[in-house]
Specification:
Strand order of the largest sheet: 1-5-2-6
Order of helices and strands: HEHEEEEHEH
Distance between the termini: 22 Å
Structural class: alpha+beta
Radius of gyration: 19 Å
Low-confidence stretches: none
Length: 173
Amino acid sequence: MGGRVPFIRPAELAQDDSPEWKAWQHAIDAVDAGPGPKVDVFVSVPTTAPLRIAADVDACVARFLKGDVDAVLTVTPAARNPYFNMVTVDGDGHAALVIPPATSLHNRQSAPRVFDITTVCYAVRPAFLRGADHLFDGVVGAVEVPAERAVDIDTALDLKVAAALWGARTDGK
């Protein structure tokens, strides 16, 4: 279709279980090794989150450009809360809260707010990306996006949900 492909990801970084962090490191190294400009900000917009809009990416990059973080990711309010309604089950079948709260909680609204990481957008400082082993090795900022734009397609059900949400869009995008 006329697109330019500046590099190809190596096969070992293109598997279902390949570490995305390593693929990002390869990408900035490949771009920086070329004749063009060097990477100032690495931005990833994974294809598994097709309901994002340009404003989500702009907000992620704008938060990154404030300069007080190594990386920024997008988040959405979590449907479940590890302080209130998420449990582990031990070998005897006994349940316990994932994170026991400091005081008793009698409703979900009293629990600390928690978020799901989305794959809508990531912005990362190249020097941090090259030197760290994991996103949370540094200072990470967050930008909240609404759940209807944060669907991450990992399963057939996720695809059906995304298709339904796409069909229901009223923003014209």
